Amino acid sequence: MIDVSNPLLQPSALPYGLPDYDAIRPEHYLPAFRAAFDEHLKEISRITMVRSMPTFENTIEALERSGEQLDRVAHAFYTVSSADATPAIQDVEEQLAPLMAAHQDAITLDGALYWRVQQVHDQLDQLDLDPEQRYLVERHHREMTHAGAALDDEAKARLTALNQQLSTLSNTFERNLLNDTNDLAVVFDSVDELDGLSSGELSAASRSAQERGLDGKFVISLPLFTGHPHLAQLRNRESRRRIMAASRSRGGRDNANDNRPVLAEIVRLRAERAALLGYDSHAAYVTADETAGNPEAVERMLRELAAPSARNAAAERESLQSLVDETEVEPFAVEAHDWAFYTEKVRAARYDIDTAALRPWFEAERVLRDGVFHAATMLYGVTFTEREDIVSYHPGARVFEVHDEDGSPVGLYVLDLYTRDSKRGGAWMNPIVSQSHLRGTLPVVVNNLNVPQPGDGEPTLLTLDEVTTLFHEFGHALHGLFAVVTYPHFAGTNVFRDFVEFPSQVNEMWILWPEVLDNYARHHETGEPLDPGVVERLRATETFDQGHATSEYLAAAWLDQAWHRVGPPDAAVDVATFEVAALADIGLDNPAVPTRYSSTYFAHVFSGGYSAGYYSYIWSEVLDADTVDWFRSNGGLTRENGDRFRRRLLGVGGSKDPLDAYRDFRGRDAEIAPLLKRRGLKA
């Protein structure tokens, strides 16, 4: 009997099926999940109990129709658990983690269901299926096999136990990181300590302090990555050191939030699971079902890029050291917390650009409407209308309705811009509702960022990095909005992990494109456009500091691979010792260039979906750089080019092999030369 009082168990009456968050309370989630689990198991049972032989319709399509209620509840919950994880929501997530893992295994490892999928797969060449249906059969069979559906009962029981343990540990890792990040936010007593920050940044730090009951003080919250945007501006070296030290210590202290034993156990259990599934390592298991194919292919690319990146970073450090030696009364050796500050000085001297001084031209609302939305309208003909009448999951999350050029609805776009203590770090896109012809649904997608919120009435002025992040995440949103598929399995960004970053990276192209930049980069007070000379100098800096940027990314990608290429006997090691050895192995052990994420706060890998897959960003960037070359060679930002990219790549979602989709768009495989040129690297 369905509990009609639980709003999660009823189809939403709101536009596009957006959950009625006004009516949903934390206590609704677990009962809704339990009811949805039961309903899903009944649906699977009805498939496996069919007495007639398996067909596409009674097995594969029926499988796609199942689980709709669970998808609705899960999307609603996980949106909130990442963006507004109150203590009550954290409690729910802690209880839910092993339940969700057990339920997923109950479906994926169901022997009777796997037999039916296998039968359909075996007769694939005799079936009259369209390309999406054929690929759907292949993917279901491949994914169930990869997950362990062919194992014997004893192995499946152990696999289920491992998956539940890993789910719980990943949740623990994320909770520890959120708590420690909040605890380690750096408190400053005076404005003098924050000399160099703008009035808006000081206002945001003051607001953050007031929210913590620290009136008269200033609190600098920490982003997910190792560095901090403020390090480029703070003149006080001790303040820079304090921020960097706090950031790098997250999850690595002897306290209740210590993630070292958590991640070590995650690594051990992942290695054991990989061995159970017949793979040498977790990295081998993960890459076997990605475009890379195996960890050796990943290693070849990372090593090919690491050596020139390290050389460039060393040369960049020499330039910074020379500047310090020439300008400081008491010179010192350049350390990690000095890098961004002196890099901006070198940039200003070499290119006459102060990136911090550009913020008045990057007012958030204008960047959104006249930059991000404007580029999408020019390329794809879509328009965006804010729906203030629609309430989302948090008062700070804004809702926009998206329409095609002919007026037909595309979906809803939700933007949650500002940081808060209940939001996990970083930036991301996720669906709340996925598009599917089979289910009759249109997409609702969310972008989350962590921009400090200034005081009431003050403008939100973005850094160039934050502008880049907004364009990047919106590229994911467009992928989620534009994918038009029949089956929910292929909806939106449901593509291989090492392909998913490609569309978002392509969307960064438009940041400095003249028709876009001229439209949004206007001084927030005077309306004055950004000086064309500054724009040209910005373009000239594309390879500037890329040794550092590439090295810190590659170091993190290699750490991820190193952790996940060890077998069970070697998995439990001292975290700090392991990191030192791994980074030395690939030649990225420069203390002035720390890894973008150290292990204890590497959420992508230990609580997100990127385990053994953080290489995906650079792997996808090969396609991205090659695509940017194509746009430049074919007239740039035009509707014809946008329609081609939308139709042949974004629009297919996961319903086609991604490299086949790329070849269809580009006319050939991607080449690495444009990436090397972009990052200023030489083999």
Short account of what is shown:
With 683 residues, this protein is an alpha+beta fold. It has helices at 26-48, 56-65, 68-83, 87-108, 111-122, 131-147, 153-183, 199-211, 237-249, 260-276, 282-287, 295-327, 336-351, 364-380, 464-482, 501-507, 514-520, 532-540, 546-564, 575-585, 603-606, 616-633, 639-648, 658-666, 673-678; strands at residues 186-188, 218-220, 383-386, 397-403, 409-418, 428-433, 444-451. α5 (111-122) packs across α6 (131-147) and α12 packs across α13.
Largest sheet: 5 strands, mixed
* Number of contiguous helices: 25
Query: Into which percentage range does the β-strand content fall?
Result: 5-15%
CATH architecture title of the domain at 360-540: Orthogonal Bundle
Q: Please tell me the overall pLDDT.
A: 96
Major beta sheet, strand line-up: 3-4-5-7-6
Rg over CA atoms: 25 Å
CATH hierarchy class name of the domain at 360-540: Mainly Alpha
**Count of DSSP E strands?**
7
Helix amount, in percent? 40-55%
- CATH fold node name of the domain at 360-540: Neurolysin, domain 3
Straight-line distance between termini: 65 Å
Structural class label: alpha+beta
Give unreliable regions as ranges: none
Shape, please? globular
